[in-house]
């Protein structure tokens, strides 16, 4: 798999990693800003801007990663269904295989 | 397809673990240093221009009518508190707040005192312009300031108060009143009057630097005559500013002849600087001023029915009250009538600008508050500790400091300040919680992924 194919196929994982990195960097920069001054009025903007934005980006990264894993599962399921169909069977709504005259797995 | 996906998973797992480790390490590395110090401040600057007081036996309950102006005040705290006001004439907090109080009691909407502009944190800057009066106020997070100007910058008088956080996280509180010209009826006039109180708190040590001044550029008293002494005094009393310490014998000096001593100065060009009258002497370079004896000047004022007293600068625990000079006079009783009788006593106090910065440096290791270096061990304005309690040589007699109308932090304000500061969570700790939440989001996502998504396929 070349790089472009990997980027196209795993865009969600790459986006997840980028979001996590951005979130962590935002949190670190915010901490640097907060620790640079002792005045609450100066610290609050860092908490709101960097802190909450960092948490949001980490959440986005986590959701994207979970989405990528689910997409993998759907691909596996699709491959299985195709393989089953190729053997002249179908998958019923209750998950059981339905072959010619044979019901059940 | 499954093999590349697993490779990607492993790669992504490693990347995710690296990011987690990076975040954890950064949190440890960036933890507050062992000797970190927290700083808090509560600063006030107030300039009340000239304080007037009028009393008369006919006033009910021996009431003394007071007023001041141009008045300005600014207040700023490290907790985000910021407020300021400017007013002229300033009738006092009671009258300014009366409309709001009456509105609440009677349910009507009473108009606010118009010659008063105030702002608090979060407000936009405000200003008001009336014929001859300009009031402005601004309360930002790092600067709180106000100004009341009467007349123009060239010929009027104004009070300015400003509290600001400096670049080094120090705090500067400054109050100043300037009168370009001031006429007291047909008795005398003053020009170039300046009262300044300034306190600078160092951002590193918290040490306070106090500056105060009261100067009058020119005093014009019709008919004033001053005789220059022929020689310097042989003894000079030594003032002891420490309460409870007895007076020491006066210092002995050999009398020295004074140039041009013995001559009479008619209508000299008088000035006043921090308790001493000055004058230019004939035959001496222009602009050079000499301290002159106080007695003849006071006698000249007394000849016009005016008493003069002076209050030296007073250091408070966290600030300074600028020197003040008070002129008092008695207006003769009016012709007999059923409403208003007797002599009316009036006082006019110039100066007394006030600046204070309560700046604390807290060692986070022990949570012990260390008072800034150089602070006096007094609490609030201690009249007994004011050096002017005993008049120094050549100075105008001192007055009671309570007459200056000075404004310090009230006990309630101080209590709120202490309570808020001690109960406020350190924002650095709060931010560490925010970072922990972020890391927890990542960890929970990973756990959810392994248990809810990957495990069924293992």
Descriptive notes:
The complex is a heterodimer of chains A (105) and B (458). Chain A has 105 residues and is mainly alpha-helical. Helix content of chain A is 75%, strand content 7%. In chain A, strands 1-2-3 form a 3-stranded antiparallel beta sheet, covered by helices on one side. In chain A, strand 2 (97-99) and strand 3 (102-103) form a beta hairpin. In chain A, helix 2 runs antiparallel to helix 3. Chain B is an alpha+beta fold and 458 residues long. Chain B is 20% helix and 37% strand. Chain B has helices spanning 2-29, 93-106, 294-303, 411-423, 427-454; strands at residues 37-47, 50-55, 64-69, 71-77, 82-87, 116-120, 126-130, 133-139, 143-150, 157-165, 171-184, 188-201, 208-220, 225-227, 235-236, 251-252, 264-266, 270-273, 276-279, 290-291, 306-311, 314-315, 319-321, 324-331, 344-351, 354-363, 368-370. In chain B, a hairpin with a 6-residue loop joins strand 9 (143-150) and strand 10 (157-165). In chain B, helix 1 packs antiparallel against helix 5. Chain B is elongated. Chain B starts with a helix and ends with a helix. The chains are: A mainly alpha (105), B alpha+beta (458).
How do the strands and helices of this protein lay out in sequence?
The complex is a heterodimer of chains A (105) and B (458).
Chain A: H1 3-9, H2 11-35, H3 40-86, E1 90-91, E2 97-99, E3 102-103
Antiparallel strand pairs in A: 1-2, 2-3
Chain B: H1 2-29, E1 37-47, E2 50-55, E3 64-69, E4 71-77, E5 82-87, H2 93-106, E6 116-120, E7 126-130, E8 133-139, E9 143-150, E10 157-165, E11 171-184, E12 188-201, E13 208-220, E14 225-227, E15 235-236, E16 251-252, E17 264-266, E18 270-273, E19 276-279, E20 290-291, H3 294-303, E21 306-311, E22 314-315, E23 319-321, E24 324-331, E25 344-351, E26 354-363, E27 368-370, H4 411-423, H5 427-454
Helix pairs in contact in B: 1-5
């Amino acid at each position: 798999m070349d790089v472009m194919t990997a980027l196209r196929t795993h865009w969600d994982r790459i986006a997840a990693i980028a979001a996590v990195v951005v979130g962590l960097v935002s949190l670190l920069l915010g901490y640097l800003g907060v620790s640079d001054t002792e005045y609450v009025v100066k610290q609050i903007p860092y908490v709101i801007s960097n802190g909450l934005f960092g948490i949001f980006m980490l959440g986005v990264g986590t959701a994207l990663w979970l989405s990528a894993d689910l997409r993998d599962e759907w691909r596996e399921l699709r491959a299985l269904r195709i393989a089953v169909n190729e053997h002249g069977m179908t998958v019923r709504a209750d998950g059981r295989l339905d072959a010619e005259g044979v019901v059940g797995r | 397809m499954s093999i590349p996906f697993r490779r990607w998973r492993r790669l992504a797992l490693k990347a995710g673990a690296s990011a987690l480790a990076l975040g954890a390490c950064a949190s440890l590395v960036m933890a507050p240093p062992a000797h970190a110090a927290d700083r808090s401040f509560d600063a006030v600057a107030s300039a009340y221009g000239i304080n007037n007081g009028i009393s008369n036996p006919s006033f009910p309950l021996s009431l003394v009518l007071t007023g001041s102006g141009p008045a300005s005040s600014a207040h700023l705290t490290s907790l985000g508190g910021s407020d300021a006001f400017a007013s002229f004439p300033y009738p006092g907090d009671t009258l300014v707040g009366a409309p709001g109080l009456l509105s609440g009691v009677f349910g009507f909407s009473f108009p606010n005192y118009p010659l008063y502009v105030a702002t608090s944190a979060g407000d936009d800057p405000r200003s008001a312009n009336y014929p001859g009066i300009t009031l402005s106020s601004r309360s930002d997070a790092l600067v709180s300031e106000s100004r009341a100007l009467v007349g123009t910058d060239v010929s009027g008088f104004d009070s300015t108060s400003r509290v600001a956080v400096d670049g080094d996280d120090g705090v500067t509180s400054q109050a100043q009143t300037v009168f370009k010209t001031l006429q007291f009826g047909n008795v005398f006039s003053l020009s170039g009057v300046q009262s300044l109180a300034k306190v600078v708190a160092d951002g590193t040590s918290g040490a306070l630097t106090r500056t105060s001044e009261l100067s009058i550029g020119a005093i014009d008293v019709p008919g004033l005559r001053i005789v220059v002494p022929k020689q310097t005094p042989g003894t000079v009393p030594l003032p002891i500013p420490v309460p409870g310490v007895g007076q020491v014998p006066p210092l002995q000096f050999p009398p020295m002849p004074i140039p041009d001593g013995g001559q009479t100065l008619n209508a000299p060009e008088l000035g006043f600087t921090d308790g001493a009258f000055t004058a230019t002497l004939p035959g001496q370079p222009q602009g050079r001023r000499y301290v002159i004896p106080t007695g003849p000047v006071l006698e000249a004022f007394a000849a016009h029915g005016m008493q003069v007293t002076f209050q030296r600068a007073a250091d408070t625990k966290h600030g300074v009250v600028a020197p003040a000079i008070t002129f008092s006079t008695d207006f003769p009783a009016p012709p007999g009538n059923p409403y208003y009788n007797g002599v009316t006593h009036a006082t006019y106090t110039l100066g007394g600008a006030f600046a204070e910065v309560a700046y604390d440096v807290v060692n986070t290791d022990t949570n012990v508050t260390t008072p800034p270096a150089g602070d006096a061990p007094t609490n609030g304005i201690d009249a007994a500790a004011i050096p002017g309690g005993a008049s120094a040589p050549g100075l105008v007699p001192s007055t009671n400091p309570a007459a200056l109308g000075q404004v310090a932090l009230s006990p309630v304000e101080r209590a709120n300040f202490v309570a808020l500061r001690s109960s406020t969570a350190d924002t650095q700790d709060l931010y560490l919680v925010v970072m922990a939440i972020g890391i927890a989001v990542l960890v929970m996502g990973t756990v959810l992924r392994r248990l809810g998504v990957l495990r069924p396929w293992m």
